[in-house]
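step=encode ok
step=design start
structure_in=
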């Protein structure tokens, strides 16, 4: 349940960032808070759809002080997506088997 709630909050935070990006950029650019916000809202994205959305957004809305953070977020999303593609079924099966035993 907590994982799901965090994922939903991440999507809500991402929507908030997109809707208020200009304000955040004006107020917090160059500071650690702006970079942390970007990292936090992208930390639960696990598919290439979100990779594309994040990439497209930051191509259209530059974040000079957070370029490295954006690149790290994109890399993390891709790694999680690749991992799920490769091992998702095995992990799901393992979890189902362990949960069924309890």
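sequence_out=
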């Amino acid at each position: 349940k907590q994982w799901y709630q965090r994922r939903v909050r991440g999507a809500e935070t991402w929507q908030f960032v997109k809707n208020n990006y200009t304000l955040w950029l004006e107020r917090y650019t160059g500071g650690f808070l702006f970079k942390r916000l970007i990292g936090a809202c992208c930390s639960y994205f696990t598919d290439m759809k979100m990779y594309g959305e994040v990439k497209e957004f930051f191509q259209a809305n530059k974040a000079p002080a957070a370029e490295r953070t954006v690149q790290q977020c994109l890399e993390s999303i891709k790694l999680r997506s690749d991992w799920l593609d490769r091992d998702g079924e095995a992990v799901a099966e393992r979890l189902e088997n362990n949960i069924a035993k309890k």
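step=design ok
step=annotate ok -> The chain has a mean pLDDT of 85.
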